[in-house]
């Protein structure tokens, strides 16, 4: 059996973000946290995990993973567009598929007033079988998380049972005591819902309704926060009507609005458990290394997409510090419990780097060096740093050397 000597790879990242709103709350306001009795700008772990996942899929060629409750609708569209199924039969196949699964299906909610009902009926007749994103379609009873390839596999399953589907009655909404009947076997649908890919092996999956579908995630992501106190700013904006501007016959704008933004230097922290990833991949060391390298690159270079067209906050980390630990992860968030204050020249980036370097040195004294196998950093800063390990020239070199140390595997009986 192959063992991994360096279990945890940690990424400690200092990154300056200009005027932006990477992560909004339910009122479109900047997310914040009070830390060290000062308000800081915050980016949630869920937000940055999604950014990392999308980076893995789009930039690094990892197969997409789908989180959705619209499985029936997506399958119906796939059958119509890829296999030329009639709309009515494709929709029926989608419904039978979700009710066959152990996750179960939910019928669309009924409209409460007559006017809404008439409007829905009219829309249904005009676009029968169309995937328009309304609540006319059946959904799964819980969110499913599957590789994108699972849609094609479910379509092939529906094709195998097409004759039965053509004769089948519409499934009834399941009750508390009885599941709806489907002509597609539950075991075959569940087998597809258990499938996984690299992204799911990294971030995990919770699907309690399907036996053996749960995947323990190998990645921990902390909420990012600014190393210093921040204030949110209100950006007032207006939109000019081009015709009014050309004619000059009246004054005023076509639209006015406002939005919250902030700016600051973030501390970001990501942990990859190589043992868990190795187990999720069935013990394949080469796959473990490739996926770990992709995850670390995504951790360093991904960026949430919110308001990117209006703020373009496309920065890279000011500093990236990787450690390989054998015993337990250690966050350096405590370095910034007392907020960093800008010096007379201004700026928080270099001062945050210095503060983290000092904190890392204090941690090493308290814990000793036994649990930390490797430490190195790459940075834009010109400050003297001596507690964050050797300085390397590039992020690529930083990742390669950390993985070479962590995965210096040995065979054991």
Order of helices and strands: EEEEHEHHEHEEHHHHEEEHEHHHEHEEHE
Shape: flat
Number of domains: 2
Count of helical regions: 14
Structural class: alpha+beta
Query: What percentage of the residues does DSSP assign to strands (E)?
Result: 15-25%
Structure, described:
By secondary structure, this protein is an alpha+beta fold. It folds into two domains: 2-62 and 217-230 and 264-411, no CATH class; 67-196, no CATH class. Helix content is 37%, strand content 21%. It is built from 14 helices and 16 strands. Strands 2, 3, 4, 9, 10, 11, 12, 13, 14 and 15 form a ten-stranded mixed beta sheet that branches. The chain has a two-stranded antiparallel sheet with strand order 1-16. A hairpin with a 2-residue loop joins strand 3 and strand 4. Helix 2 (71-83) crosses helix 3. The longest helix has 19 residues, at 349-367. The protein is flat, with a radius of gyration of 26 Å. 38% of the residues are buried. This is CRISPR system Cascade subunit CasC. Pfam families: Cas_CT1975.
